[in-house]
Amino acid sequence: MYALHTLLESGVGVIDVRDQADRSRDGILPGAVAIDAAAVIARVVPGLPTSLSTAGREAQWLLVSTNGATAAAIAMRLRDRGVCASHVEGGFRALTTLGAGVTAPAYRRAVAQFAAHSG
User: Fold this and answer.
1) Which fold is adopted by the domain 4-117?
2) Could you please report the per-residue DSSP string of 59-115?
């Protein structure tokens, strides 16, 4: 079982790409950075003038959208640019189904992807 704080402590950046209306309605994802889906590429690809200070070559990102589709598409575009990025299958909905939160299987699978590529 994984906790979001453990993932964050390991250095993986969690990005909530849901829009503000969804975050206001459904709640925030604690510990995640909220970045509009249209701006994620510009904020996390290393070397761009708009990149976050944490967007280095070794950075790892886990993206969360409402149902997972938007995050999957953005993660694929990031990987095409050499960025280590994954998404939570099923998105925020999968994380919150039946109060599963960050112990949901979709979240654990996404975290396991990082574990498989590290060390």
Assistant:
1) Oxidized Rhodanese; domain 1 (3.40.250)
2) -EEEEE-SSSHHHHHHHHHHHHTT-EEEE-TTHHHHHHGGG-GGGSHHHHHHHHHHH
